[in-house]
Amino acid sequence: MAGRERRWLAGSRPGLVLTLLAMMLASLTGCEKMLVIPDVSVPWNEALAEVFGVTVDQISLEEKHARLMAHVREGWHHPAQNPYFLIGVLGCALWTVAYGFFIHRGIRDRAHSLPMLAICLNFTWEAMAVAVLPNPVLAWTILEWSWLLIDIGLLAILWKYGAANMTIPELQRHFHPILVALVVACLVLQLSFVLMFGDMLGFIVAFVINLVMSVLFVFMYFERRDDLRGLSYPGAWLKMLGTACTSVQCAVLLPILRPDIPSWHFMYALYVGIFLFDALYVGLLWSARRARSPAAR
Question: Do both 174 and 237 map to the same domain?
Fold first, then answer.
């Protein structure tokens, strides 16, 4: 099998090179690109809005706040007409319960139950949400404080047991300095992202983190599939369902809050990608648990 794959790659290499050369020549000779901007004299978002056949609008932070609070009020008082806020609240509640399962499994197995990078990203996002980002919704503020405390617990488990669970000798030997540097780097990068792209509620970067976590969970499974150490099956289900709920809410809410953005395809790709990787992770855990004896689950 390996020999056939090598022969196939060797045979296809000239074709790949010719394809790349053709693309370069087409670009150099002025051939039309797939994305054509009809009017380059207007701001970027207006130009792209014309391409996609939509309209954009600039709103103030005051108007954005008013729209957010209207979303919350309508969600509380008229859930039949605007169910998306309560769907988001349900998603946050599911995530909170998932955190409890992750901590329980981590303490029981003496192993971090979330990927190392995901824990650092989560902790710094919560710290940023609590200390830096404006948040006018009381329910979200309470959730962010509770998640910060939970993330401190997850970070403590990682600090205590992480080195022993590392498979790379260099990482194991210098684990704690690397962990501190990683936390600092995650905080700086997330703050920079928020300031550069105007993600004042931190929702966009939160879904980027979520996708990173979902992908790393799959790799974490293959690293620990022999004993499933630290891997929480209920936590995996709750993360998947909780993120699905918050995805539904944000698919409706973010375009309302950011009418200056002409395309939300990036976010749609994040929503779908997160769900697919979460479903893959749940399926892998289900298959592994089914193959093990009940006592070993």
Answer: yes
pLDDT of 157-169, one tens digit each?
Answer: 999 999 999 988 8
Cβ 118 vs Cβ 97: under 8 Å = no
- Statement to judge: residues 77 and 192 lie in one domain: yes
Structural domain total, the chain: 2
Q: Are 7 and 72 in a shared domain? A: no
Residue whose token pair is 């309209």: 55
**71 and 6 fall within a common domain:** no
CA dihedral 220, 226, 230, 222 (to 10 degrees): 10
Q: Are residues 13 and 109 in the same domain?
A: no
Assess whether 98 and 23 both reside in one domain: no
CA separation, residue 3 to residues 8, 10, 11, 12 (Å): 9, 11, 12, 14
Q: How much is the pTM?
A: 0.84
The Cα–Cα gap between 256 and 66 comes to: 11
d(CA 129, CA 58): 24
224/160 Cα distance (integer angstroms):
18
**219 with 281, same domain?**
yes
Give, in order, the Cα–Cα distances in Å from 194 to each of 136, 164, 181.
17, 34, 20
pLDDT tens readout for residues 7-23? 544 555 666 777 777 66
Closest CA to 154 of 187, 179, 135: 179
Q: CA dihedral in degrees (134, 125, 143, 204; nearest 10)?
A: 70
Helix spans in 29-137 (H): 44-52, 61-77, 84-109, 116-131
Whether residues 134 and 108 share a domain: the answer is yes
